[in-house]
Amino acid sequence: MSDKQVVEYPGAEIDVQWDGRLCIHIGECGTAAGELFVGGREPWCVPDGCSKAEVREIIERCPSGALTYRDKDGGPEVAPAENIVTLAYNGPLYAHGELVIDGIPEDLPGVSHRAALCRCGASANKPFCDNSHLAAGFEDFGAVGERGAPLHALGGPLAIKPLADGPLLVKGNLSIRAASGRLAWEGTETALCRCGASQNKPFCDGSHRAAGFKSD
């Protein structure tokens, strides 16, 4: 893989882009069966190595938005019908939906549908995860105690606003899944902890103030 921050992999029908600013090496790409991604090969990604439909499906597996595509004949990536935030075991929040993340540069197209958001407080790339939770020893197994209120509709824009020195304020139709995969919470507005100190994870309980959390 190239050391460049953003790498383009052109194909006849579809192009793939990898953005190192977002990649946390989950490996959904490298472990995918087929010839799209092959470790040690140069180039690592060959969009013509499989069908266009396979390219789209594999790229959309990337939970951080580091991988995106440009379909030369088809439409762009479509937001899923439901907005879901999944808690990773001792790791970030994986957001998948029609994401509208406040303050994010326009040159990060992948995070309009997929993003890995820091919840340990240690990332140097806030609001995104950069795997700092590993060195920080962040521990949260991804259980959710609250239930919220049943949704009357699914999907639609999910506004995510990182508050200065505070939580992620989320507005829109949202389902939260525990790390076990359980549908745990539903609602249209909540504040999600990103300092790592809340006693009511994944929700903010104001602990960021005592913890001296800084978002910059």
Descriptive account of the structure:
With 216 residues, the chain is mainly β. The chain has two domains: 6-71, Alpha-Beta Plaits; 84-211, no CATH class. 8% of the residues lie in helices and 26% in strands. The protein is built from three helices and ten strands. It has helices spanning 52-59, 132-136, 207-211, and strands spanning 6-9, 14-19, 67-71, 84-87, 93-96, 98-101, 114-117, 157-162, 168-177, 183-192. A hairpin with a 5-residue loop joins strand 9 (168-177) and strand 10 (183-192). The chain is globular and about 55 Å long. The chain starts with 5 loop residues before the first strand and ends in a 5-residue tail after the last helix. The mean pLDDT is 94.
How many separate helices?
Answer: 3
Q: What is the alpha-carbon Rg in Å?
A: 18 Å
Instruction: Give the number of DSSP strands.
Output: 10
Unreliable stretches, pLDDT < 50, 5 or more residues? none
Largest sheet: 7 strands, mixed
Give the number of domains: 2
Helix/strand order, N-terminal first: EEHEEEEEHEEEH
- The helix-and-strand class reads mainly beta
Residue-averaged pLDDT, rounded?
94
The proportion of residues in beta strands is 25-35%
Q: Distance N terminus to C terminus?
A: 30 Å
- What is the helical fraction, as a range of percent? under 10%
Shape: globular
Topology:
Blueprint: E1 6-9, E2 14-19, H1 52-59, E3 67-71, E4 84-87, E5 93-96, E6 98-101, E7 114-117, H2 132-136, E8 157-162, E9 168-177, E10 183-192, H3 207-211
Parallel strand pairs: 4-9, 6-8
Antiparallel strand pairs: 1-2, 2-3, 4-5, 5-7, 8-9, 9-10
Organism: Candidatus Thiodictyon syntrophicum
GO molecular function, one term: metal ion binding
Protein name: Iron-binding zinc finger CDGSH type domain-containing protein
